[in-house]
Amino acid sequence: MVHLSLDELYKEVILDHYRAPRNKGQLDPHDIALERNNPLCGDEIELFLKFDGDELTGIAFDGKGCSISQASASMMTEKVKGLSAKDAAGLAESIKSMMAGESEGDQATLGDLVSLKGVVKYPVRIKCALLGWNTLVEALEESGKS
């Protein structure tokens, strides 16, 4: 098995999700749609959520921006789909904590998401990586389910 450094993993995963984003496009029907942007760099995201009870059964994003914002949103949609709103919000908080340098990020829990930790070396890009996650937290709060 080849062991990649965090930097290599970060580059591989970000590029893969940027080139082939998962769950990109509009989700119809949806229960919540929320649009946010990062005015500093021009990243834009629109997030669509579909619930069955408390479970996040559908999630998609649309928008434009740098590779980090788009890849992070793609990774997020893969990881939270099927979770309860509460678990999705908890995961978002774990990512925000990791990006703030408050935690290391648990590989077993986060999987490929731990590669986002590579962004921490570029403080100006942290907001790019968190745009989708912050939008998710807001959308979950708006839904009243988290």
Task: Provide a short characterization of the protein structure.
This protein has 146 residues and is an alpha+beta fold.
Please describe what this structure looks like.
It is a single chain. The chain is α+β, with helices and mostly antiparallel strands. The protein has a single domain (6-143), classed as Sufe protein. Chain: A. The protein has helices at 6-19, 67-80, 85-99, 107-110, 126-143; strands at 32-38, 43-52, 55-64. The protein has a 3-stranded antiparallel sheet, with helices on one face. β2 and β3 (55-64) form a beta hairpin. The chain is globular.
In round numbers, the mean pLDDT is 92
**Could you tell me the radius of gyration in angstroms?**
14 Å
Total of helices: 5
Task: Determine the fraction of residues in helical runs and give it as a percent range.
Answer: 40-55%
CATH architecture annotation name: Alpha-Beta Complex
What string, H for helix and E for strand, traces the elements in order?
Answer: HEEEHHHH
The shape, in one word, is globular
Q: What's the end-to-end separation, in Å?
A: 39 Å
List keywords for this structure.
146 residues, alpha+beta, Sufe protein. Chain: A, 5 helices, three-stranded antiparallel beta sheet, globular
Please render the helix and strand layout as text.
Elements: H1 6-19, E1 32-38, E2 43-52, E3 55-64, H2 67-80, H3 85-99, H4 107-110, H5 126-143
Helix pairs in contact: 1-2, 2-5, 3-5
